[in-house]
Amino acid sequence: MSRRRAACAVVPLILISGCGGTTHPSRGSAGDAVERVAYTVVARHPHDTAAFTEGLVVHDGAFLEGTGLEGRSELRRVEIASGRVRARRRLPPAVFGEGVTVHGDHVFQLTWKNHTGFLWRTAGLRASGTWRYAGEGWGLTTMGDDLVMSDGTSILRVLDPATRAVRRRVTVTEDGAPVERLNELEYVGDGRVAANVWPTTTIVVVDMATGHVTATLDISALAAEQPPTANEANGIALDPRSGHWYVTGKNWATMYEIAPEPG
């Protein structure tokens, strides 16, 4: 299923509750409430602890996962239930892989400081070219006819998928202050993008029309379950069939499936 169709299956994040908790509103950039939301873990799936996760997306019933570190960066197709890697494509040893997304019949993959993006065909993960961009590459997602890219700052770039030209820039704020170090991204419907905030366990949800943070989600309890060798939380993927989210981190042993519940 394409990322454009996946957006239609999203359950809005503002409905999330669970874990015996309640939501706690604060004030957003324009005086609107920011929902501090809880969640329910519905399943725990295996995750390769060797995967330094930088990008994650659900496509055709499997994960496409981008991993980082020089000499170890890959694009992988991974079974959701088992965590088994069914296909992998290695990036050049000098590059540090970052966020991934799908638009049309292509996978787009960023690199950190190499100013180079890689294109792959979704069929067989065949290499299909590269493109250049200014600045660093962190996270990437698809929002309708746009790509949305993070670069480690508080600014999200909205790109033309065909040319990768910047259509506009959105500054992300909460309580009037910029939210920096936006990392892995996922479009979660209704014009909103979720982002890991590096190196924290906070996920923010951004209204792309205004740049305001409308909700946050704290996954520190999940991070606490990980082995000592685990690194930062990173990786958000929406399941278009169930509306569940998958969240994980770099070298985590678990891929968590979390469900929104009516508030």
Describe this protein's structure.
The chain is mainly β. 3% of the residues lie in helices and 51% in strands. The chain has helices at residues 3-6, 220-223, and strands at 24-27, 33-37, 40-46, 53-59, 62-67, 74-79, 85-90, 97-103, 106-111, 116-121, 127-132, 140-143, 146-150, 155-159, 166-171, 173-174, 177-178, 182-189, 192-197, 202-207, 213-218, 233-238, 245-249, 254-259. It has a 6-stranded mixed beta sheet with strand order 1-2-21-20-19-18, with no helix packed on it. It is globular, with a radius of gyration of 17 Å. The chain starts with a helix and ends with a strand.
Q: Which tags fit this structure?
A:
2 helices, globular, mainly beta, 3% helix, 24 strands, six-stranded mixed sheet
Produce the secondary structure layout.
Elements: H1 3-6, E1 24-27, E2 33-37, E3 40-46, E4 53-59, E5 62-67, E6 74-79, E7 85-90, E8 97-103, E9 106-111, E10 116-121, E11 127-132, E12 140-143, E13 146-150, E14 155-159, E15 166-171, E16 173-174, E17 177-178, E18 182-189, E19 192-197, E20 202-207, E21 213-218, H2 220-223, E22 233-238, E23 245-249, E24 254-259
Parallel strand pairs: 2-21
Antiparallel strand pairs: 1-2, 3-24, 4-5, 5-6, 6-7, 8-9, 9-10, 10-11, 12-13, 13-14, 14-15, 16-17, 18-19, 19-20, 20-21, 22-23, 23-24
> Distance between the terminal alpha carbons, to the nearest Å?
29 Å
Structural category is mainly beta
- Name the average pLDDT: 89
Number of helices: 2
The strand line-up of the biggest sheet is: 1-2-21-20-19-18
Shape: globular
Helix content: under 10%
Low-confidence stretches: 1-27
Overall radius of gyration: 17 Å
Which strand-content bin applies to the residues? Answer: over 45%
Largest sheet: 6 strands, mixed
The arrangement of helices and strands along the chain is HEEEEEEEEEEEEEEEEEEEEEHEEE
How many β-strands, per DSSP? 24
